[in-house]
Specification:
The structure is a single chain. By secondary structure, the chain is α+β, with helices and mostly antiparallel strands. The chain is about 50% helix and about 15% strand. The protein contains 6 helices and 5 strands, in the order H-H-H-H-H-H-E-E-E-E-E. Strands 1-2-3-5-4 form a 5-stranded mixed barrel. Strand 2 (about 160-165) and strand 3 form a beta hairpin. Helix 2 (about 10-30) runs antiparallel to helix 3 (about 35-50), helix 2 packs antiparallel against helix 5 and helix 5 packs antiparallel against helix 6. The chain starts with a helix and ends with a strand.
Length: about 200
């Protein structure tokens, strides 16, 4: 196939690899829907298929493994930014050198490699670092603090609805039907559901 023989092919595979690494990093620090995990698998599976055509540089593969290890270390260290930066740098270098063309030459265009590596460093520094810090942060509001506070009913309590208290929306339960806009007092908490009573 002409595309497989084109000089653009290694660059496309390189972009897929980097996209897979970005998706994987995001999936680790913000798991949830499964969409990121699926995108990671699809991107890296496509890269795996491409290795049938593109010869691999084992040193590049080793650098990718080291970069992944540094990323795991960053999740466990108090100052993740140092390890994240090292991870992004090593992953970027490993990705650039992963594929070879004839006589050991690098298959990825140097300008593309420079741009994507810079973006990867920025992505790890800003997005991934902030996600790690947010995961480690204590909750902004202690649920116990909301007890005895005055709240406003936002959706009808019949018997369950929502109330607004301490700058946040909470699920709440009342022993009687309470209309929207009514001011209530928080008298207890069952898990994350508040127990409220209308103000007399």
């Amino acid at each position: 196939m002409p595309i497989l023989e084109s000089p653009l092919f290694p660059n496309l595979v390189y972009l897929l690899l980097m996209a897979g690494l970005w998706f994987a990093a995001l999936a680790v620090v913000s798991p949830g829907t499964g969409a990121l995990e699926l995108l990671t698998i699809l991107a890296l599976a496509a890269v795996g298929l491409a290795t049938v055509v593109l010869p691999l540089n084992l040193w590049g593969l080793l650098l990718l493994i080291v970069g992944a290890g540094l990323f795991i270390v960053s999740l466990q260290r108090e100052r993740p930014e140092i390890w994240l930066s090292a991870s992004a740098l090593v992953l970027s270098i490993g990705s650039v050198f992963l594929f070879e063309v004839d006589q050991g030459l690098i298959a990825v265009h140097p300008v593309l490699a420079l741009v994507v590596s810079s973006l990867t460093l920025g992505f790890f520094w800003f997005a991934i670092r902030k996600a790690i810090v947010a995961q480690r942060a204590d909750p902004s509001i202690d649920p116990e603090r909301v007890i005895d506070q005055i709240a406003e009913v936002r959706t009808k309590l019949d018997p369950i609805g929502s109330v607004y208290a301490l700058g946040e929306l909470w699920t709440a339960r009342a022993d009687e039907t309470v209309k929207v806009g009514t001011r209530v007092k928080v008298v207890g908490r069952e898990g994350l559901v508040l127990k409220v009573k209308p103000l007399k």
